[in-house]
Amino acid sequence: MQHLVSIQTSSPASSARLAASRRSPTMAGSAFDGTIASACESIGISLEQMFEMMRLAKESDPGVAELLDTWDALDASERQDGGTADAVRQRVGLKLPELLRTVAEVTYRIAIYKAQIVAALALPSVVERSIETALTDDGIADRKMLFQHSGFVPTPKGSETNIAITQNAQANATSRSVVAAPSPENTIRRLTERFNEIRGLPRPPAARTTEALHVEVPERVEGDGK
Is residue 3 a part of any domain in this protein? Predict the structure, then answer.
């Protein structure tokens, strides 16, 4: 009975802290103070787990590799001190945001790759199970997916994709300038002249006739009686 009374008469501040800790268990610790240990506490992992993720990023960043080499050279007793990790980080000149960004990016990529491998290994079994379900009376959705995958049923196109394609086509058509193609006769004549020039052969009569047509005619002299 005394225990119930003590809970009911607790202060509003303690009730607020208790409610906050229930809403976010990983953020129930002390406030972030810019250290590696505080960052680990705020996201709910241990310092050892953070260093294991750093080892995944060792080959991606030389600063992380130098930090790990210095850390591994310390005695086990020195690693127990909460401030040692940040002292090593500052010694190698690595800022905490850069460290967390590198660790997060590498860990995320590895997690994605692992998920893709797991999905690839499970895909044959999933397809087999989907086929088994599609052969039943209730396998309408599975039959539809299999038909669309095989191309037996067309896959509907989204309106956003169609709009993007139309806009791109219009933009390309606007940016292109219209160039009139030469006539086939002119193209054949130029190719023939080029071939004869390379082989040292005389040009065809058609070419000489064309040049003759472009010969300038001298002006007529006044008083010639014509």
Answer: no
